[in-house]
Input
Amino acid sequence: MTVPAEVREHCREARGSARTDGLVPALALLARALSPKAPPRGPRGHAVLPKELLDEFAAMEAEDARRDERRDDEPLPGLAVLRPADRTETAAAPDGPDARVWGTGLAWLRLGMSERLREACVAYLAARQVEGTSLLMQQMVKGTLADVLIEHLEIEGVLEELADTPGGDGTLDRLQRQITRADRTLLRLLGAHGFTQDGPGPAAHASELLADVYRGEPA
Output
């Protein structure tokens, strides 16, 4: 199954939005484009979406919303995890997106988030100095950032290929793992700052949560 041209454009828009605006606006943009009638759910029936979008779905389908109204976690301000109230129900909503299309969109979005993290990392390290020299100029730091940039370019190239040639879910899973590794590498460069409340760590964690929720087989 190739990715339709219109879907490709939505995916690229989500990447750009993630890079400039952050995860919540980008996820809202992607969900409204690819799943306008129902929350996109992972294989176990969970959904991770902006709260405002869940409210919109609740208004459209009140009965389903009452059944599934379990928003126990808030991994990021403005974001919520929707849990299925009945685990025996079918995970996929009939009006939800094709799993591969949604997975492709998420990979593009997460690439944008990882690029946003890389840019934040560069800005932070450039402003930090040790013995009068910017941390960004240290050989190990420059080498690590170069490696992450290469990873990002490779991910982009594979996603572009997937737009034109059929690819299995295994390829998307590999890309998601590659994005997660890149994010974790960048967070290590930031040290404690990467894990503070105001740092980029929470957004990177939420991005990884997205990959986990929408990947894999139902239990």
